[in-house]
Design goal:
Blueprint lengths: L3 H4 L2 H7 L9 H5 L3 E2 L9 E3 L10 E4 L2 E4 L8 E3 L6 E9 L4 E8 L12 E5 L1 H4 L31 E8 L2 E6 L2 E7 L3 H8 L16 E4 L6 E10 L8 E4 L7 E4 L10 E3 L5 E3 L5 E5 L6 E9 L10 E6 L9 E5 L8 E4 L11 E2 L2 E2 L13 E8 L2 E6 L2 E6 L8 E6 L4 E10 L4
Antiparallel strand pairs: 1-13, 2-5, 3-4, 4-13, 5-12, 6-9, 6-13, 7-8, 7-12, 9-10, 10-11, 14-29, 15-18, 16-17, 17-29, 18-28, 19-25, 19-29, 20-21, 20-28, 21-22, 22-24, 23-24, 25-26, 26-27
């Protein structure tokens, strides 16, 4: 991976580069990504309400899925359906061209847009879209406008789009920046629909799963590097480190003495509850080297008291407070920070590093008491910290040695669930 300042702009840089053979890295495969376009193979797509790929208006060439000017083939949809998902792709518009990425589409109505929300794809400048218009590029079409200061490259240049919908939280990203965020599982979502052009279409925006569609308006638009992952499915080769039932894969350290159950317990909902005192940690019995680690955490939802904890990576012996490792911080307001413990060999962004601490790029936590998700990618010499769908930190040249994984007890009650790991193969 690249140095951290480049990591923050990774998708932007990738969008400006010439197309390359569309493949997935071992880390991407472990994280659950699959390709929706393999070279010139468009078999993952078909026409809306059709059996096969359109015989006009679309083509797959040079690793791109293209809407041909003049169109006439209608929208295309994925053969597979998705509930919670993450989609990543590049798009390029001809002058004044209009298209869209529509998701959770059902085929019950005459058109894709009558059931699924849309990430607008548009050449704003050529089309004459005004800044802050809910019909401009990146917007949640006719519902939430992308910010006026978004970065959109002009006609003929590649842009990068990412859509993430996970447990009711919807996010649109354009060229590496989050530009739309809202919830789709409450009354506010239904109110937005009722105020939009979609109010007359039964079930709009309420489908639990559906197809992903690319819209055809008869304008020249190209898509490439199209990949998706199902966020509701297990990771490939997933190991459930904590399955909500027992702690058989874990051991513990409490320097002041005591039993595991004095600090860690499993409640009736399958949540791992850490009291926070005494100070110590729970750690895996097994060692791991290269992996994708996913877990969810929250602080006490009743007291809503902020607190501190962390996820320790590549933990080395001896067991002590604190062991030599890389810490992915969980302190309230600082999730996504790195802490270097015991002079662990690693390189982080010098502009945000003060002593052993490297600050995250931005805060991206849910309100205290609500669940958050960490995705931690430990891949050779690279460690990347993703919080709630955004990359907040990355380190390079990290010492590549096997180690355990630990969850800290550090003075405050914290809850964990869905702790799971997918090994990265091929290292």
């Amino acid at each position: 991976m690249r140095p951290l300042t480049a990591i923050a702009c990774l998708t932007l840089a990738a969008a400006s580069m010439p197309a390359v053979a569309q493949t997935l890295t071992a880390a991407e495969q472990a994280a659950g990504w699959t390709l929706l376009l393999r070279g010139d193979d468009g078999s993952a797509w078909r026409g809306y309400r059709k059996e096969g790929f359109p015989d006009k208006g679309w083509e797959v060439r040079d690793g791109e899925l293209r809407v041909l000017k003049g169109g006439g083939g209608g929208d295309v949809v994925t053969r597979e359906q998705f509930g919670d998902f993450e989609l990543s792709l590049d798009f390029k518009c001809e002058k004044a061209a209009n298209s869209g990425i529509i998701y959770r589409v059902s085929e019950a109505n005459d058109a894709t847009w009558q059931t699924g929300p849309e990430f607008q794809v548009l050449d704003d400048g050529g089309y004459g879209a005004k800044p802050g218009d809910a019909h401009a590029a990146g917007s949640l079409y006719d519902m939430i406008a992308a910010p006026a200061d978004k970065e959109l490259r002009p006609a003929g240049e590649w842009n990068h789009a990412r859509i993430r919908l996970h447990r009711g939280l919807l996010q649109h990203f354009l060229n590496g920046r989050k530009i739309v965020e809202c919830r789709t599982d409450g009354p506010a979502w239904k109110e937005m629909i009722a105020k939009s052009k979609f109010k007359g279409y039964a079930g709009f925006g309420l489908q639990p799963k559906g197809h992903i569609a690319l819209q055809e308006h008869g304008d020249g638009v190209a898509y490439r590097n199209i990949k998706v992952r199902d966020l509701g499915s297990p990771l490939p080769g997933e190991i459930a480190l904590f399955d909500g039932k027992d702690l058989s894969q874990w051991t513990f350290l409490l320097p002041e003495g005591g039993k595991m159950e004095d600090v860690w317990s499993i409640d009736g909902q399958g949540v791992l509850v850490c009291k926070g005192n005494p100070v110590g940690y729970l750690r895996t019995k097994e060692r791991f080297t290269d992996y994708v680690l996913k877990l969810e955490w929250r602080f006490n939802p009743v007291t809503k008291k902020a607190g501190n904890s962390g996820v320790l990576l590549r933990v080395q012996e001896p067991d002590q407070v604190w062991p030599r490792s890389i810490e992915a911080q969980l302190q309230s307001g600082s999730a996504g920070d790195f802490w270097n413990i015991g002079n662990f060999v690693m390189t982080a962004d010098a502009s945000r590093t003060n002593g052993r601490n490297t600050r995250h790029l931005r805060a991206n936590e849910q309100p205290i008491g609500e669940w958050n998700e960490y995705e931690i990618i430990v891949d050779g010499g690279d460690v990347t910290l993703n919080v709630n769908g955004e990359t907040l930190n990355a380190a390079t040249k990290c010492e590549r040695i096997p180690g355990t994984i630990a969850l800290q007890s550090e003075g405050a009650e914290i809850h964990f669930r869905r702790v799971r790991l997918a090994p990265i193969s091929g290292q």
